[in-house]
Design a protein that fits this description.
The complex is a heterodimer. Chain A is α/β, with parallel strands linked by helices. Chain A contains 17 helices and nine strands. Chain A has a five-stranded mixed sheet, with helices on both faces. A four-stranded parallel sheet of chain A has the order 3-2-1-4, with helices on both faces. In chain A, helix 7 links the parallel strand 2 and strand 3. The longest helix of chain A has 18 residues. In chain B, strand 3 and strand 4 form a beta hairpin. Chain B is elongated. The model of chain B has no long low-confidence stretch (mean pLDDT 92). The chains are: A alpha/beta, B alpha+beta. Chains A and B meet through strand 3, strand 5, strand 9 and helix 13 of A and helix 3, helix 5 and helix 6 of B.
């Protein structure tokens, strides 16, 4: 396994960590140069200039969609008459296979806080909320303490650095439900409503939480802001080996020798991560399939292992980079059962707002369970493909259902024989389909 | 025991009231603080009864149906009595590869309940949860506020003994 030497030059997000990987509290953080970026920003850079720097850095959102952060920021309404704007930090990390935001919040909380403060400055926000997932109790305690430390040192509060600006950061801890991570659902949840997604447009940048312009960024995205401000755009661009700029927390989990996460430049190949960092597959196992970034990304196979990990390369291979925390599936796992588990998750977490998602996902689970138990029906695989189409992009209210069928569709594409062999072993019962009326079985 | 729990007359304590009012200030509207209010009450009582809902709605000055809409949506708000200890086992994809279904059937058998049920002595409630963000240390379960990782069935059996 590779020995990792973290320096501020090459590992802007994780070089703060000491050997024992303890929490970096404010004293240590300041000693290593923390909050200098905030000081620089507040004293010498105009808000519009900060937005321009972030735009020039081509930082892309790290929550999964990969939208350019600078562009998102410049969409925020700059109307002088609106004096209330909000910044929401999306820390509702619940994607199966993802554990990067938790790591950043539990180890280097001040980097996130500094990122939020600089972003608040740029977007002229005085009150920001961190929407934290309810189950992350350790992260909650650490963030609360870090926020109160930052208050004590005068970074949060009134007249920061002698200016007339004031900043507040509130920590909101949620109460479950995966859908809260969808940005408009997150707004509804924060307002104390059911976490159903909202229709776009209007986009949150013009009408967001409590009707005010709102910017929503992921934890890792915001953590990238301080190093960009401090070290400049050119340095940040040079970090990466590909078109996407900067570094990304990437990892591998599943049955590998050394599962974990590492800060790596974009453009590193999946094979390098798997073999050099994660130590390769466990003895006796081979890699059959892998998901590049969370449960809602398409499966790729061993053939794709040499693709560079960046947004465009992974999507050219037919998947999404997502959160870049990959999951390895070994040769002993049956794809039908694995996909059944993934679809059970998505079916349970559907908010129930629109019909294809609410009824389609349980139906998929029902079919997969039948197939798994060798009780399939003749056209089941075809039916699954039909459902993948019906739940695909553009046919549902939000991205939950398209994300849910991504692993299913790709599993059928690459491992069709496994689905077919489940069907062949089934005692096939022919159901006569009646057009327009579908079986409505309760699970 | 269940009957006793259900017939309980309900009144919010002063601490709870103050805590709720304190959190109300953090948000722009009282409705936004409803999740926090429910969590405060649930922390003390274990679950949210119908009477509790009315009482909280009164303090927040929102309608009880608005509050119930939230209480029934979010998975961590309990609308039925639960045990003293909540076991949440992760059933997401990485833990699945590490045998979470064995853990599930082991727990069901050992506690003699099914998923979503509570033991008769109100010691444990068993629930599934999605990815707890410890995939590098799978399989994982969470008991109350603590996450336990790299588990084996033997370790789980020992763990259960430490919760009364």
């Amino acid at each position: 396994m590779k020995k990792i030497l973290r320096t501020s030059e090459t590992h802007p997000l994780t070089w703060w960590l000491n050997e024992n990987q303890d929490v970096v509290w404010i004293k240590e953080y300041k000693k290593k140069g923390g909050y200098l970026a905030f000081e620089k920003a507040i004293k010498s850079i105009a808000p519009s200039e900060i937005i321009k720097i972030v735009k020039d850095s081509e930082l892309r959102g790290r929550g999964g969609a990969g939208f350019y952060t600078g562009v998102k920021w410049s969409l925020m309404s700059t109307d002088e008459n609106i004096n209330i704007r909000y910044l929401l930090c999306n820390a509702d990390e619940m994607e199966p296979g993802t554990y990067k935001d938790k790591f950043l919040m539990e180890k280097i909380p001040h980097q996130l806080i500094e990122g939020i403060l600089i972003s608040s400055l740029a977007l002229r926000v005085s009150r920001s909320y961190i929407f934290l997932r309810g189950e992350y109790i350790r992260a909650e305690n650490i963030l609360r303490q870090a926020i109160s430390e930052a208050k004590k040192y005068g970074y949060i509060g009134n007249n920061v650095f002698g200016s007339n600006l004031s900043f507040e950061i509130f920590l909101h801890s949620g109460a479950g439900r995966y859908i809260c991570g969808e940005e408009t659902a997150l707004i509804n949840s924060l307002e104390g409503r059911r976490a159903n997604p909202r229709f776009k447009p209007p986009f949150p940048a013009s009408v967001g939480v409590w009707g005010k312009p709102t910017c929503i960024n992921n934890v890792e995205t915001l953590s990238n802001i301080p190093p960009i401000i401090l070290n400049g755009v050119q340095w940040y661009k040079n970090l990466s080996k590909s078109l996407d700029t900067g570094t990304k927390i990437m990892g591998f989990s599943g049955k590998v020798k050394n599962p974990g996460l590492w800060e790596l430049p974009f453009g590193i190949t999946a094979r390098e991560i798997l073999e050099d960092y994660a130590g390769g597959m466990n003895d006796g196992l081979t890699l059959k399939a892998w998901q590049p970034g969370g449960a809602s990304t398409e499966f790729l196979t061993y053939e794709h292992i040499d693709i560079p990990m960046d947004f465009s390369s992974v999507s050219r291979a037919g998947s999404r980079l997502g959160t870049a925390l990959a999951m390895a599936v070994d040769n002993t796992v049956n794809m039908v059962s694995l996909v059944r588990n993934i679809e059970e998750f998505f079916s349970r977490e559907s908010c129930g707002w629109c019909t294809p998602c609410r009824d389609g996902l349980p139906w998929i689970v029902f079919i997969l369970r039948d197939l798994e138990k060798f009780k399939g029906h003749k056209d089941d695989v075809k039916l699954l493909e039909e459902l993948c189409y019906r739940l695909g992009p553009g046919k549902t209210f939000c991205a939950h259902a398209p994300g849910a069928i991504a692993p299913l569709r790709s599993a059928i594409k690459y491992f069709r024989q496994e689905f077919d062999s489940c069907l062949e072993s089934s005692q096939i019962i022919n159901i006569k389909f009646i057009k327009g009326v579908q079986p409505n079985n309760k699970i | 025991m269940l009957k006793e729990k259900l017939n309980d007359t309900f009144e919010l304590s002063n601490d709870e009231k103050q805590d709720i009012l304190k959190h109300k200030n953090y948000y722009e509207s009282s409705r936004a603080s409803s999740i926090e209010a429910l969590k405060i009450v649930q922390k003390n009582r274990g679950w949210i009864s119908k009477r509790a809902l009315y009482e909280i709605a009164k303090i927040l000055e929102i309608s009880a149906s608005d509050l119930e809409e939230i209480a029934t949506f979010y998975s961590q708000i309990f609308r039925k009595p639960v045990g003293r200890n909540i076991i949440r086992y992760c059933d997401s994809v990485v833990c699945y590869m590490y045998g979470c279904e064995n853990i599930k059937s082991f727990l069901e058998k050992r506690l003699d309940i099914l998923i979503g049920e509570t033991t008769k002595d109100f010691r444990f409630t068993l629930l599934p949860t999605c990815c707890l963000g410890s995939c590098d240390k799978a399989p994982v379960i969470m008991i109350n506020d603590r996450v336990y990782s790299n588990l084996t069935l033997q370790l789980i059996a020992e763990l259960l003994e430490s919760y009364r």
